[in-house]
Amino acid sequence: MISLKQSTFLSLLSALSLIMLIQACGDGPSYYRQAELTPPEPFDTTQAISDSTTEEGLTIYFIEEGDGLQDKKVEPRDEVYVRYTGRTEDGEAFDSSYRDSSQNPVRFRNLTPVPKTSPNGQQISPLVEGFRQGLIGMVEGEKRTLIIPPELGYGDPNQNYSGGDLEDETLRFDVELVVIL
After folding, report:
1. Please, what is the average pLDDT of the chain?
2. What's the CA angle centered on 52, arms 46 and 53, to 5 degrees?
3. What is the pLDDT of residue 12?
4. What is the pLDDT of residue 2?
5. Same domain, 143 and 87
6. Of 64, 119, 148, 179, which is least surrounded by CB within 10 A?
7. Same domain membership, residue 88 and residue 151
8. How far is the CA of 141 from the CAs of 45, 65, 80, 84, in angstroms?
């Protein structure tokens, strides 16, 4: 009788060990999965309403006028919800608010060129300078394409920026301003 109990126990233990081993060989839990970027096609800059280039080299293509109030434009102190996609010069998307087929906009809280501290003491880093400059002056519903030179992007790799492999790259951001808070 004892050997039957031991045999059953050992069989169950072996089965559980095998299940755990198979589970450990999988891709791991889904919460470790990196979100998949699912951006739309890039805006067609050949159909832009107009374009301009700043002294610093930021080129802004005005793709679509906004339907928001023309006297309510983004200012550095504003918080905004934006849909965007960042691409490298070869067209590869490296960042986007379009993730896993979601079209939810992203909230940006710091449109100033320097870090701010939130009411709970958390430091809010500024955006890439060219992206920040490109948002200023937008109205709700407006769409723009921003061509950001390295100096206004993640910068020179010798300057200790945190852009990883995007340092010294010209960046393209397609941006839609959803709402100004």
Report:
1. 84
2. 115
3. 60
4. 54
5. yes
6. 119
7. yes
8. 17, 7, 12, 13
Each residue's pLDDT tens digit, 86-108 = 999 999 999 999 999 899 999 99
Instruction: Compute the Cα dihedral for 90, 95, 96, 102 and give only its sign.
Output: positive
Q: Give a yes or no: residue 37 inside a domain.
A: no
Radius of gyration of the chain (CA): 24
| Residues 73 and 146 reside in one and the same domain | yes
Burial 36-75 (b: 16+ CB within 10 A, else e): ebebeeebebeebeeeeeeeeebbbbbbeebebeeeebbe
The answer as to whether 38 is a domain residue is: no
Task: Give how far Cα 132 sits from Cα of 85, 94, 177, Å.
Answer: 14, 17, 12
Taking alpha carbons only, the member of 146, 148, 154 closest to residue 174 is: 146
Number of domains in the chain: 2
pLDDT higher than threshold 80 for residue 85 = yes
Q: Is 77 exposed, middle or buried (0-12, 13-18, 19+ CB in 10 A)?
A: exposed
Residue 160: per-residue pLDDT: 45
List beta partners, residue 172. 87, 147
- The C-alpha atoms of residue 172 and residue 130 are separated, in whole angstroms, by 10
Give me the domain span that covers residue 10.
Answer: 2-32
